[in-house]
Amino acid sequence: MRARNEEHDDGVDQAVSMVQERLTEEKWQAILHNDADYDGKFWYAVKTTSIFCRPSCKSKPPKKENVRIYPTAEQALTGGFRPCKRCKPTGEKLPDEEWIGHVTDYIVSHYKEHLTLELLADTSHSSPYHLQRTFKRISGITPTEYIQDLRIQHAKTLLVRSDRKIAEIGSQVGMTNTPYFVTLFKQKVGCTPASYRRQHKRGD
Ligand SMILES: [Zn+2]
What we know:
Shape: elongated
Helix content: 40-55%
CATH superfamily of the largest domain: Homeodomain-like
Structural class: alpha+beta
Bound molecules: zinc ion
């Protein structure tokens, strides 16, 4: 088999390659197909037009050799590129980001209650599957993981700042099933709620 014809940056570009990322085939396909799943994961700039875009931008596909990849919009700006007027890579939030922002706000104010993926999807007239997928794409974790992390974080505070019983604290952060609360706590924190309290509570 012949060696793959790898692209090499020329000498000038090596100086900026610290912040630039390589244009992998995966990223190139994302650009060609305006794949919104990649929005927020990288930005691409076009050397000939000095403009940079989100992967989902519907503008004419650039020539591959003119594409520069950046991990953030700020770095593309620093690299001397202007934001595209069409996809507004630095501008307003995309509808999906806004939606997930609302779901996140909802979770933050209702984490003490019983929350399910179905219920969260219902609040925004979406399907659990679509919510799960979009949430994960935008925040990197699933809604369930987000809820669990938030509950455990509040439980840690209550364990240290109050004398309430473990079961009570569990219920207070939305986990009425105490054995489950203890198991999850152990899984996330590395010790039981009781031993966490012993380690962190002062003045006993
Ligand atoms: Zn654009």
